[in-house]
Amino acid sequence: MFAIMRASRTPSSPSTPSTPSAPTAPSAPPLDRAPAPAATRRALLGVGLAAAGTAALSACTGSGGSAHGGHGGPHGPSASGAPAPQGFVAPDGPEVAAAEAARGKGPVRAVRLTATAAALDLGAGRTVRSWAYGGELPGKEVRVTAGDTLALTLANHLPQATSLHWHGLALRNDMDGVPGLTQRDIAPGTEFTYRFAVPHPGTYWFHPHSGTQQDRGLYAPLIVEDPKEPLAYDAEWVVVLDDWLDGVDGSTPDAVLAELSRGMGGGHAGHSGGHGGGHEGHAAGGGDSGDGTAGTGGAGGHAGHGPAASPASPAPAGSGGPSRMMMGATSDLLGGDAGDVAYPYYLVNGRTAEAPAEFRAKPGDRVRLRIVNAGGDTAFRVALGGHRMTVTHTDGFPVRPVETGALLIGMGERYDVLVTAGDGVFPLVAAAEGKKAAALAVLRTGRGAAPAASVRPKELAGPVLDAARLKAAEPVALAARKPDRTVRIRLTGGMARYDWAFDGRPYTPDQRHPVKAGERVRLVFTNATEMWHPLHLHGHTFALGGPGGPRKDTAVILPGETLTADFDADNPGLWMLHCHNVYHAEAGMMTVLGYRR
Question: How high is the pLDDT of residue 68?
């Protein structure tokens, strides 16, 4: 098991909190020229719950004026027609309201955000048609202070329903943004206000929890400032990493999911029964040290891009765009197979390596990087050429400082690091681990030409920091305590049938792993698959490896390994637990922790 750390600072200006204003009617959703989205497991299950006509979540009008009416609760029949389990805390229940009241009421920060189809400039003459927040990639950061109340109104101008999940925040359950479980979908042409207290400082982000939408351009950083910030630094750089395919040669995330779901043999003959499912041929070919020496591009044959682990195949029958199934991507750091998807581009702050985003500072400046991996299927090995990084936080919570030249970041993870800027022009490289490609940004403190897209700092080939070397800072360390409850979960499935799941059971919204408020809960994950997985728990942070371990909400488990995570059950509701590989989650690797009444 290992930890991944990240730090960053976005070049785009933050979304400035505004004073509350009256809601405006959204314009008609613009037409997206991409192929129509496939019906995913999550979308179908959410529709089933909404169609059941269950009791609506209680109205809670935010400062933007949008009520929660129309976002149904999860208390009626499930998509399968079976009654949802009774005896659990409801997302809009009194226990949730009491927990929110205990967080206090701080100043309200009102923000408006629009999800819309847009033409996105990736740099070097590459423009793609996708979906984004405000037509920008990444979306503009939202910045608040711990203790504030955030009231963000999302207007949906997309051609399909959407949602917003606040990744890493311990917020009220009915604002967690999981359609079919904690709310109803936000329908096209409507809007919804997420209103909640923001309790903890740190680096977070937000994205949809609706099908494969996160693997389009729908993501943005959320920075929660500490009113008693203990770190001293001169500048801050928010760095958002991504793997990109939407709108390239006709590709969409939904088409990729459809291709993967057919399995390695082209057919989907049922589930593997939880014994790995087989990756025969998926990792064929030589391994990769992760330094990305083969170039900056991926599959797809775009000019100026080197080959990925395997070039894209001809388009599979009945799909749009070339095949995006990854072949031959391996990494020792990830325990073998590095990923499922061959992306044509890898991005830092929405830009390709040929036209990198640039951050300016002064020589000698102490710079705080807040790094977010918003990718769908890619771990990144990150290094800043000519510099050592001091890791100060992971997933929003402080750790005992550790110095490193490189760090590994799984999907959904965040790391904060401090660097003392040298004099000159320096490459910040995020190598797509095992995929023989990389993303690039530039730190500029003086004159000089920007580094070439093919640059690979020597730090990438040195030791890579992992979770085993991280310890929680004393003020946030989980106190030693015997677990009251142990929840054991086995990761199952494989590429042969693309039947990723927990305990051999694909996700349905009526699943519950029961916990009780006040318990110390130990999660024990056993990875019976031949693939690594970034596991994410909503609404809580856990101590990785038990008390004393770093506080995280997302952690990587390698093939054949066991991961232990302890947390205090102090935030009542129904909380998702899932793999943060977009395609594994949509295949069924999700479940629910439910608080008993």
Answer: 32
Please state whether beta strands 520-527 and 485-492 pair in parallel, antiparallel, or not at all (unpaired).
parallel
CA distance 279 to 300: 23
Report pLDDT for 51: 33
Separation of first and last alpha carbons in the chain? 34
Tell me the mean pLDDT in the region 242-246: 98
Enumerate residues 6+ apart whose C-beta is below 8 A from 192.
Answer: 66, 68, 71, 153, 154, 156, 183, 186
How many angstroms separate the CA atoms of 356 and 427, rounded?
Answer: 10
Which amino acid, 539?
G
Q: Phi and psi at residue 195, in whole multiples of 5°?
A: -130, 120
Taking Cα atoms as reference points, which of 591, 581, 540 lies closest to residue 257? 581
Q: What is the largest CA-CA distance in the chain?
A: 66
Helix (H, G, I), strand (E, B) or coil at 337: strand
CB 335 within 8 A of CB 560: yes
| 367's tokens | 């710079």
Q: Model-level pTM?
A: 0.83
Integer Cα distance of 170 and 457 in angstroms: 37
Beta strands 389-394 and 425-432 are unpaired
Distance, in Å, from the CA atom of 554 to the CA atom of 279, rounded to the nearest integer, reads: 25
Question: Is residue 459 a contact partner of residue 385, using CB atoms and an 8 Å limit?
Answer: yes
